[in-house]
Amino acid sequence: MSDQNPLFIPGPTNIPDRLRAAMNVQTRDHRAPDFVETFAPVLADTKKVFATTEGTVITFPASGTGGWEAAVCNTLSPGDKVLVARYGMFSHRWIDLCQRHGLDVQIIECDWGSGAPADKFEAALSADKTREIKAVLVTHNETATGVKSDIAAVRAAMNAASHPAMLFVDCVSSLASMEFQMDAWGVDIAVSGSQKGFMLATGMAILGVSPKALEAMKTAKLHRTFFDFRDMLATNASGGFPYTPPLQLIYGMRESLKMLFEEGLENVYARHFRLAEGVRRAVDAWGLSLVAQSPDLYSDTVSAVYVPEGFDSNALTEQAFNAYGVSFGIGLGEMNGKAFRIGHLGSLTDVMVLSGLATIEMAMADLDYPIELGSGVAAAQEYLRKHRAALIKTAA
Amino acid sequence: MSDQNPLFIPGPTNIPDRLRAAMNVQTRDHRAPDFVETFAPVLADTKKVFATTEGTVITFPASGTGGWEAAVCNTLSPGDKVLVARYGMFSHRWIDLCQRHGLDVQIIECDWGSGAPADKFEAALSADKTREIKAVLVTHNETATGVKSDIAAVRAAMNAASHPAMLFVDCVSSLASMEFQMDAWGVDIAVSGSQKGFMLATGMAILGVSPKALEAMKTAKLHRTFFDFRDMLATNASGGFPYTPPLQLIYGMRESLKMLFEEGLENVYARHFRLAEGVRRAVDAWGLSLVAQSPDLYSDTVSAVYVPEGFDSNALTEQAFNAYGVSFGIGLGEMNGKAFRIGHLGSLTDVMVLSGLATIEMAMADLDYPIELGSGVAAAQEYLRKHRAALIKTAA
Amino acid sequence: MSDQNPLFIPGPTNIPDRLRAAMNVQTRDHRAPDFVETFAPVLADTKKVFATTEGTVITFPASGTGGWEAAVCNTLSPGDKVLVARYGMFSHRWIDLCQRHGLDVQIIECDWGSGAPADKFEAALSADKTREIKAVLVTHNETATGVKSDIAAVRAAMNAASHPAMLFVDCVSSLASMEFQMDAWGVDIAVSGSQKGFMLATGMAILGVSPKALEAMKTAKLHRTFFDFRDMLATNASGGFPYTPPLQLIYGMRESLKMLFEEGLENVYARHFRLAEGVRRAVDAWGLSLVAQSPDLYSDTVSAVYVPEGFDSNALTEQAFNAYGVSFGIGLGEMNGKAFRIGHLGSLTDVMVLSGLATIEMAMADLDYPIELGSGVAAAQEYLRKHRAALIKTAA
Amino acid sequence: MSDQNPLFIPGPTNIPDRLRAAMNVQTRDHRAPDFVETFAPVLADTKKVFATTEGTVITFPASGTGGWEAAVCNTLSPGDKVLVARYGMFSHRWIDLCQRHGLDVQIIECDWGSGAPADKFEAALSADKTREIKAVLVTHNETATGVKSDIAAVRAAMNAASHPAMLFVDCVSSLASMEFQMDAWGVDIAVSGSQKGFMLATGMAILGVSPKALEAMKTAKLHRTFFDFRDMLATNASGGFPYTPPLQLIYGMRESLKMLFEEGLENVYARHFRLAEGVRRAVDAWGLSLVAQSPDLYSDTVSAVYVPEGFDSNALTEQAFNAYGVSFGIGLGEMNGKAFRIGHLGSLTDVMVLSGLATIEMAMADLDYPIELGSGVAAAQEYLRKHRAALIKTAA
């Protein structure tokens, strides 16, 4: 309603001015040298964000869902088995996608609020004597529950089972905000998008692909053209694109990478932890609980917060929007009505976080929640000011 | 190189300031009323551009290639037969896509420079006694050759053969620039994109879908999730999207439609004809020939021009770019080296067209083409000023 | 430092996106009809904001200081006497300007924190038997102290003294934010600027001029050319400008007026009161005092707040800026070191105000101020939510 | 009308995207370090454009007219004598300004189309035995007639007369487009603006001031406050401003300087000469004449062109605007109706120049001018392509 207020949905994020300016370019000829000289370094630099030297970065003009589809279609064949744990709306949707593409999905059902069950993965993989499981699919940051899973542990489980399956990770809402180690964690395909940690508009799926996944590509039989890695690899090599590229987003990506590297990825991660911790202190001060079941699972990009018994979280987010013009994330799937979500990712500052906390406090008070106005803000202020960090400079 | 010069590639087009401003919006909550109230009218208004009242408009955050894939995957099953004529790079690519998705493609090979062969379609359909052909695929405006095909004639041919196949039309580079009559021509799926007649950034595939195609959707077995019409229809109905929508493009689309309706679609088409005719007069004055074989095939959005024997069209477009900072379309596929292309679509003015003609004349002179400087410009000036039209107002 | 954080200086204000877009226009021909058709209505509509039907609006490409100079130079002659009260930095500067232009300035010295002394004005005017005082100069909103003066009372005092002097009012930081009644208050020249209530970039002085002031113009002998009303009146009449106009600001002004009228001037004033009252509740909760001496003097666009004895207000604003990237106003003149200022004008929301309060609380805590974190925020939240108003829509 | 077409008024110029983006910044605190660190280098770098090491750069939020006023008011006293030649509208207006500020203006009347008469200046100065003339005022580039004067010759004349008068030069429409040598030419005050060679929006007067002029400042008695050098010098020294600065323009100026230095000032001048020469070839091909009386007087930023006997230049510029949406400069003052002007300054390309020539040719043909369509374009094409230069890169 008002472009003046920040929003607190867990992506797309508030876009800093530098990136709005970077995306606001006139059409340029994508077959001309200027584009070529822009695009190739963007792909190369994005590898640093995935923390991969072996992998290849591939982008599509699509959303994260398109990235999931690309991962699956380029490496698997109809009837292939994949192993997935369901612990939130986004893991659920990836399962659904696999099923609709004719894959045999072995599902491990988990509580929403829990993370990727490394032990159960190990058991399932060990039981898979005939090595029918071709890939393990994991949601790194389950945006619906505010849960961050331990990908290194999943990799360790796969190794413990000596299983050759590929590891596909959805890092849509974690990449460029929380630590991600594609090579170190042995990730074969990592799927992300432009509108979260990269702070851009929606419209670009961004994948990191390992040599092993590229090998699987050669025999994969699922149909694909728009999402075909092969066309991308063939044209990207010379700075081209198999069809019209999302030029404005690529120029935006160039500036986004510049901003991330200026701040330093480690500092970006530390900032997200710090701001998230401020939010968590507020939640605690309100006497409310996170959906994430334990501190090791706390996401630094989104906090899903249970409302007290007898309250409807949808009424709360509506009140925040209608009365104060501020958007928070609603509870998704089985969390609908039970939890609301505070997105705290992207180009965010202490000041913005505090404004979100102050707003939701007012909305809670309006709806007679048993919370004290200012209490969450005070707890966050106390934490944030005692753990001050160098300010990021988001303006050019 | 310089954002000051217009470009003459056949899309993406020069983006008018109004649309750059419209797309340059801060992130808004796509689950909030503001987006819903924006998106629904955009879909409804886009129907007017397709000239359909019966059809449904569906958009994806993708390029035109994604639109082709969506058309096919949502209505057909593996092994289904489709009938296509190949007469340029874009009809070729759609054929390739169909083959990669496991369809049985019956191809009618035509000369590049010719259009959709209604007579051959009729013969093929009449010969298809068992009605195995499920769809006829036609490229309305073949961007590689500057050829506009007669879709009404194709429809007449299908009717003459009393064949029940669906008619799918690629109108990526024609919609919103040249007349398109989805209902009148009996088109079942029309595929377009944001970056041509809509004058926006690349990133949105835009489809018009007939009730018959929606019926076919119910039994189609090709895999799809990202491009699934069903998810779109289910969420669009209430102003939503099955995943994160390309918000900035949708706001851009709202303003684009406003501009198109302010000018009037008939006037938009007339303007494109007039500017294209100016270009054609210049080509004639240079003593050069169009790739399009006859006037009824001339495209009003792009002219492909043969260079004289012994000249290399790639050297010409490189000279225009390197010496004058202006992009023209290169010759694609079998036209590579033989023809260059002048895009003349979108928010274009007489003044811009003349600057393009003046530029390519200089580049031709630089490369010792047998043309007289100023001759094409003069021919275009003469035509344009004698067929003056009301100026469009592109500024808000 | 970060364009993400709002700022809380008492102007220039945070510029809403709509106005940034409106000012971001390409150069247009200021002698062409499009500009003429834009400029004339802007002048006419601005009269509504001054609440004048008799007056004329004149703008200059300058700051508010230029507006003061224009007021004086166009109506007075060297040696003319003017009556002014000094009660802050901006009244002081206007006095200084008058003196430098050779006027005889009769100064009434007042405490900083007080407002225009109507009674003393009346006494001085009554004592001026020979009617040498040509104009009374009043600062409506003293930005240095957060004091709003009662212009109607000044007019009443002038009337009580039956004195024919003109009344000049500096409403730079009040117009379009707080009620202003040019005709009803008998104001002869009202001076404002683009960067406060109009929410635009700095660069346009905006004056309302009464018929009486225009009459005085005819005999005024102070030198002026750039600021000459006569050139403006002569060219503005036909939509022109005597020199190159600040085109981008004029397009911005058109949109600013649209926003103000969409919200409704009464609602704009009510919103500023409400937000200011929220700030005042916070100040009270901190146990601090405003510089403004009594509630009737409280400004709704800026609050100047005394820091406790022994603290340096400059250290506080520096801490807010260096640690949190948020700008507040420093103490000016004799308030330097003693008070800081919270600007709360323009396109501001509850959420933004709360973020400012939360930030300054952290800075105060960092410097060991005896305040409780969250206390000011809570007091403001309580007030703001209990006096909720319809949200303004700042996005187009 | 259409923001797509370039304009050919002699300033404000077409603004390149980089500068529009640079000016489109959110409000920042002008008392904070970020602004200080931006503003000081801008002032220092602008000295390079004036080619002065001894001088000081001072800017005001005003137009060029304000710059003229600042020059005069800061260095002269009422009744002081200045020597000026009148040979166009802008020299005329500066004379008028001086007279309105109570100066004694000794005017040398010259034909419009001629330049500054060094010989007559020498005679007048030699005749001024009592050294009453305090300043010689010269318009470097008379925008009304397209005449560039020889400032070095004026300085030589002053030296030949051994006269101590200051030399003030209006370089509004020449600085940053044509060579200017403040130190070498002994210029005491050079007056320019943001909207010409700096390619920015209107709103900043930019002055170069010599030590001698600063000395004169100390005793100057003309009234000034807004335009007072002293306040500027006192605050600029520490990166400040005496009142609210035109922040957006200063950020724009930073980027403008960057662009100018990237291209290289010598290359900027060469480009303007080359483009101007292209225009002059076209004028010659049309059989028309420039107002400028001889080649040494030809301006490289604007060409004033006589229309043939019996034609009305206003009808021509109106036709270009109404029929084709392109603005050219009208004839000013005694040139009104007799000549039109083609502005060719700022961020201009060959392509843009040719589009302007093609447009005015059409308008001339529409009005039955005895010119051949394409003839001017062809002459310009021939010159431009034979004198090709490296392309400037205006995009970031």
TrEMBL record, chains A, B, C, D:
The keyword Endoplasmic reticulum does not apply. Keywords: Aminotransferase, Pyridoxal phosphate, Transferase. Its cofactor is pyridoxal 5'-phosphate. PROSITE patterns: AA_TRANSFER_CLASS_5 (PS00595). The keyword Calcium does not apply. One of its GO terms (molecular function) is L-serine-glyoxylate transaminase activity. Residues 31-291 form the Aminotransferase class V domain. It holds the Pfam family Aminotran_5. Gene3D superfamilies: Aspartate Aminotransferase, domain 1, Type I PLP-dependent aspartate aminotransferase-like (Major domain). Its EC number is 2.6.1.45. It comes from the Bacteria. Belongs to the class-V pyridoxal-phosphate-dependent aminotransferase family. NCBIfam families: AspGlyoxATaseBhcA. This is Serine--glyoxylate aminotransferase. It comes from Roseobacter fucihabitans. The lineage of its organism: Bacteria, Pseudomonadati, Pseudomonadota, Alphaproteobacteria, Rhodobacterales. The gene is sgaA_2.
